[in-house]
Write a structure and sequence with these properties.
mainly alpha; three-stranded antiparallel sheet; about 90 residues; 3 strands; 5 helices; single chain
């Protein structure tokens, strides 16, 4: 790996640090693609579509006519709402 490639990858890692995003409030603006959201939550795309269509999923952001995503903040809020009481 070249030095340039190493620096590029390091910059990407710094750019996409979820802990830092939450700390400075960027998580409300970062958007996960639908596929990333499904993978992050360990669900299939069919289940993800079903959750969103039924209104039991997180709030979505319409990116274009055919593409949508979920903000990191909306995903965290959705996950918190689904927590079971202990």
């Amino acid at each position: 790996m070249t030095v340039r490639e190493f620096e590029r990858r390091a910059a990407q890692r710094r750019q996409s640090d979820p802990a830092r995003d939450r700390e400075i409030g960027l998580d409300q603006f970062r958007i996960l693609s639908f596929a990333q959201w499904c993978a992050l939550n360990g669900i299939s795309p069919a289940t993800g579509r079903r959750l969103i269509k039924s209104g039991r999923g997180p709030t979505v952001v319409q990116l274009s006519d055919r593409r949508f995503g979920i903000t990191i903040a909306a995903n965290a809020e959705w996950q918190s709402a689904r927590r079971r009481p202990e």
